[in-house]
User: Fold this.
Amino acid sequence: MPKKLRASGILFASIFIFGFLVNFVFVSMREGIVRAFLHPYQISLVIVSSLFLLSAFFERLRWIQPLIFICLSPVSIITEAQGIYGLGFFIMGVLLLERAGFFLRHRAPRLLAVMLYLLAVEIAAVLVSKRPLADAVSPTFFIVAFGVFLWFLYKDRITVILKEPRPPLSLTERGLSQAERTFVMATLSGKSQKEIAKDFELKESTIRNTLVHAYRKLGIEDRVGLAIMGERYEISE
Assistant:
């Protein structure tokens, strides 16, 4: 689990828990303690906080963080068309997707899909609020601007990939064993730990433990770090 994702999971969980406590005080003053606990908004805050905490400590759940914000985005935007909170949730979700490694593969179509998602949400917000469809022009300009922002976010990396040869990196010189080199190369090819275990007729836990040792020798934390390293270097056994 990348340290930044763990930190962000704990941070967001703390923020939502704080929101729960503040809202609990005000709701309990109006409706009593029991209703303050059972209020739908309070329950949703508890669920979201729990999901953030789980995502902070379990690597397979790291996608929960961006998905929460991506899902909160249309709720906020449709409730109040072009709501600044919804756009903020959307940007936060995309940045967390980037941190989780979502855009490492098939970058262009995934970026396009994300921006089309926002456009669809904005159009839905305009229709729900019974405003003229022309009001969706403003969100469209925002989407274009956000696309430019993403371009600048990845421009240096794309330039390196397209124009400059990647420096070589030998796994043997980094001290990886034969098994570690084999599993790392298989992971770079896109295979999951389950698929590698099936190919070599080994337990998935064996593959996982071997990769953990390999990642330590390479100075990375997980397969996302390995994918980033694969973009920067020409990795060979």
About this structure: The chain has eleven helices and two strands. The domain at 168-236 is CATH 1.10.10.10 (Arc Repressor Mutant, subunit A). The chain has three domains: 1-57, 63-164, 168-236. The CA atoms of residues 30 and 36 lie 9 Å apart.
